[in-house]
């Protein structure tokens, strides 16, 4: 939900919004929507993405529906602080690919009076919490959980099914490697 749609919009303070869910649920699309609305409101917006996410573009965040927005690529969340000094709104895509210091960085930005929007997977391919997103959820003022459509049965999906045998927790990919599944159709890997 966009903060402009809320009854009690914060004033003279910063805050953190988290958009989470499984793959193909529209997280990046929602981040782009919120960032574009802030730009229309003449706010200074900066968007960041981790270097590891090179699926669609090296310099843009790109949704699976091919919406895009220019972004700054960083290797570590600590870089975001200096690069967003003049921003009013700071967007971070693929939050699950950052280290735990993303939480501290977002806290600092919000304490500086900035609106911080973080999008990312809340669960990994095993259906387990995907750090640092659970910690982001704990400190956020606003949380939006997006759902996809289960490719097996058509129900609302909140799990990411990996279609390959890799046991690496981080494996960057799209429809070639992952699909959205509901709780019933999700098949977690055997440990």
Give an overview in words.
- The protein is of the alpha/beta class and 191 residues long.
- It has a single domain, classed as P-loop containing nucleotide triphosphate hydrolases (Rossmann fold, 3-Layer(aba) Sandwich).
- The strands form four sheets. Strands 5-2-6-7-1-8 form a six-stranded parallel β-sheet, sandwiched between helices.
- Strand 3 and strand 4 form a beta hairpin.
- Helix 3 packs parallel to helix 4.
- The longest helix has 14 residues.
- The radius of gyration is 16 Å and the shape is globular.
Strand order of the largest sheet: 5-2-6-7-1-8
What coarse outline follows from CA principal-axis ratios?
A: globular
The largest sheet, given as strand count, sense and whether it forms a barrel, is: 6 strands, parallel
Rounded radius of gyration (Å): 16 Å
Percent of residues in beta strands: 25-35%
Question: What is the terminal separation in angstroms?
Answer: 36 Å
**Strand count:** 12
CATH topology label? Rossmann fold
Low-pLDDT sequence parts: none
The name of the CATH superfamily reads: P-loop containing nucleotide triphosphate hydrolases
The CATH class assignment is Alpha Beta
By secondary-structure content and strand pairing, the structural class works out as alpha/beta
Question: How many domains make up the coordinates?
Answer: 1
Overall mean confidence score, pLDDT: 90
CATH architecture: 3-Layer(aba) Sandwich
**Order of helices and strands, N to C?**
EHEEEEHEHEHEEEEE
List the helices and strands and how they pair.
Blueprint: E1 15-21, H1 27-40, E2 45-50, E3 60-62, E4 68-70, E5 72-74, H2 78-83, E6 89-92, H3 101-111, E7 115-121, H4 133-139, E8 142-146, E9 148-149, E10 156-157, E11 159-162, E12 178-181
Parallel strand pairs: 1-7, 1-8, 2-5, 2-6, 6-7
Antiparallel strand pairs: 3-4, 9-10, 11-12
């Amino acid at each position: 939900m966009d903060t402009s749609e809320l009854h009690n919009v914060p004033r003279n303070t910063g805050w953190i919004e988290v958009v989470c869910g499984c793959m193909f649920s529209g997280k990046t699309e929602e981040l782009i929507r919120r960032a574009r609305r802030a730009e229309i409101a003449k706010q200074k917006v900066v968007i960041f993405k981790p270097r590891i996410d090179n699926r669609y573009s090296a310099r843009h965040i790109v949704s699976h529906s091919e919406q895009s927005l220019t972004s700054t690529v960083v290797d570590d969340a600590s870089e975001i602080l200096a690069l967003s000094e003049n921003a009013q709104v700071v967007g971070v895509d693929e939050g699950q690919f950052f280290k735990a210091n993303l939480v501290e960085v977002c806290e600092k930005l919000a304490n500086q009076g900035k609106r911080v929007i973080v999008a990312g997977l809340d669960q990994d391919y095993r259906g387990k919490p995907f750090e640092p997103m659970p910690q982001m959820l704990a400190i956020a003022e606003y949380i939006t959980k997006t759902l996809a459509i289960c490719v097996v049965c058509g129900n609302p999906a909140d799990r990411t099914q990996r279609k390959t045998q890799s046991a690496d927790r981080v494996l960057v990919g799209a429809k070639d490697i992952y699909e959205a599944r509901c709780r019933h159709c999700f098949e977690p890997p055997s440990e």
